Task: structure prediction
Amino acid sequence: MKSTVERLSPTRVRINVEVPFDELKPDFDRAYKKIAQQVKVPGFRPGKVPARIIEARLGRGVVLEEVVNGAVPAKYSEAVTAAEDLTPIGRPDIEVTEIADNDKISFTAEVDVRPEITLPDLDSLTVTVDDVEVTDADVDEQLENLRARFGTLTGVDRPAAKDDFVLIDLSATVDGKDVEEAQTSGFSYQVGQGGLIDGLDEAVQGLSADESRTFTSTLVAGEYADKDAEITVKVTAVKERQLPDADDEFAQLASEFDTLDELTADLRERMGNVKRMEQVSAARDKVLDAITSATEVPLPESVVAAEVDSRVHDAIHRFEHDEDAFAEFLTTQGQTREEFDTEAREESEKSVRTRLVLDALADAEQISVNDQELTERIVYQAREYQMPPEEFVRRIQEAGQLGAIYADVRRSKALIAAVRAATVTDASGNALDLSDLLGEDEAEGDGIEVLEVPAPEDTDDAPEAVEGETTEKTATASS
Result:
């Protein structure tokens, strides 16, 4: 087999392949065997029809078509493997250009490839993150949250005020018709928390038990979504939360500590650890921004287009692919479809650019992923999507996502290596040593999530993994 590679652009190549017939004997054998299983010829058992009879009955063209369909994908993969510094990241467009019987088969394959990327010197990168500062107000807020967990609700004989808890009955009508899905009774609600019905907080405040008020609000779901409704709320009880005193007795109740001072000291330390992790997260994001900003990245159009299609598909899927319903939703969000498409394109380009940079960084740093790291990520993501690990593995294998998860772990480790190499300072100018949070070496550093693979709801709707993301140069083609 002979193959040559033409560089069409920084992100696309054409591979020209010529396969002599003497290399296709195994493909002809498979083709004859497959066709023999499918045809019925009097006097021959299924699968036992000789090659000459098959050609006489069906013609040589049928055999050649079967050979080409089987051989071209395999020969394309061979050509990709033989090419140096060539990593396809999309499906190839294959065209059979010549079938010279008993001589050769020629075809071309155009495919997007990972571009050559020149990365900046990691040692020269400097980023600044916020200081770790735990104020008394921070500690007081944590202490108040802890006291609230141990608070008790006590009924009061007065109008409801902000932060009170009320039991309410709700009903609604639209154009005089009852809205069944908007009716409830005995519902517990904290005044001022919001997020339930616009105008409810204002309506409830000032009401005592057994008092009611009617107000107008727009429904956001159900049969009457986006319709104005007359909503009646009746308060059946008003309760206030009484918090335990912040003293040593409370410290013993709420923690393993004997005194309030010990408890508040622990809260301060915990807040400090949280803010240090926020420093690590900020450092990660800023180092990644610094690398991508300093790197010229040609974008493979087919990969970007696939990313856009995936984002649009996921957005419309929530509306059962009803374009009109999706358009109405965008209107409620103050956005046009054109604006959504533009935003999807921009986000897709950023995502593809980030992946390409991190892949190049992983190559430069010679990052590898072992079985334990891959398993830990799979278990972590299975837990995130509330699925048994075995079921999650089955789903991602069916959707072809395992290579994408491998690539994500590798990118995470590459970014951690970059953060470790860069100079990170706080706002006060102090150089930060984040090694205890990043891990002492790359094997321990997979604690920062970079890019996640969406859990496939089913194999049809699962987002397609980008080919070529693993370290192996493999590809599948169909003629």
